[in-house]
Amino acid sequence: MIAEIIAAGSEMLTPYRQDTNSLFLTEALNSLGVQVAFKTIVGDNLAHLTSAARIAISRADIVIFSGGLGPTEDDLTREAAAAALNLSLHQNPDIIEALKKRFAARNIVMSPNNMKQADVLTGATVLDNKNGSAPAQYIDTTIDGARKIVILLPGPPKELKPLFTDQVQPLLAATLPPQHLATRLIRMALIPESQVDARTAPIYQQYPDIETTILAGAGEIQLHFLCSKPTLAEAQARVDELTARVEAEMVDTIFSSHGESLEEIVLLNLGLRNLTLSTAESATGGLLAQRLTAIPNSSRTFVGGAVVYSPELKTLFADVPAELIATHGTVSPEVARALAEGIRTRTNSSLGISITGIAGPTPGTGPDPSQPLGLIYIALATPTNTELKELNLTGDRERIRFWATQHALELIRRSLL
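^ that's the sequence the OP posted. Answer follows.
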């Protein structure tokens, strides 16, 4: 079965509010073996909302509305659902009584427009909202011979989440056919999306029962696999089989096949080898250290590092000779090597990595104004060798800094292979 989520509210069509309920609902539906095929955000307009509802009911087995159940004129979900389902609305006396008690308990005079919240679709089951004034509604019906489940939920997350978990989810679990979803996530760093697809498409196209999604961004490519089967074991076996074949094709370009981040994998591999790491960062200003220390228990392998923006601190914290900086400049392969070797020695770590370069925002600035924007040097020092990488990155300052750390982490990972 597939589902569609309709988020009602003009505020979510502005730059200031986001629909977060659909993320929660998607996870909850997936746990029931239901795949969310569509998500729609609709403003507070009855014609638009009714149209969206009709389309959703025509193409999805389960349609869930979030929001638009309040007492004001722009709360139109009940009316739109009724029009789309060709059902009438009637006032439920029990809801009216509950509303009166709710307002009386708060010593507030109930406004007449609150009566609107007692409007219930014919045939709907009313679900009590213990955290708000708008009850939910649940309809399990048949349209043109097809079973349709339509659910109306309040918009505030503190109301929607417990209501769905406590009441809607048990209803769905008791009535839906047994179905289970299994997923796998493969992650690869610093490889073009086109290359990944060219090499993996001939494999995943042989699995029409598995939905494959390729996502590109933030210096990595992700392959998402999703499969639905009557049992979880069947679904998991199917995605595991596809994953194994993709792993055999992409080999060491894959840094994770269970969803771990690149920094998690680096720390894991350091730990498995009883190695430690230290950092000396100039252009990235501690971003690499921040990514590493965001992982719990990173202190087992990451001993620390230094942000060495000025030439003086490069000498003070990483023992880079002042004459080396004067001769070659702070953005140079020589200084990058000296930084990595110096921080490794000063911290007594197994590995030392350094990043120096020009992150911008404009060329011709910084300690080496003659160097081009995006020029980055990364060095990785071990007790026996120092490896150097030169990059010419593009984009704004934030992008250059992040990609520099991504290259640094991937350099460490590959060195540990």
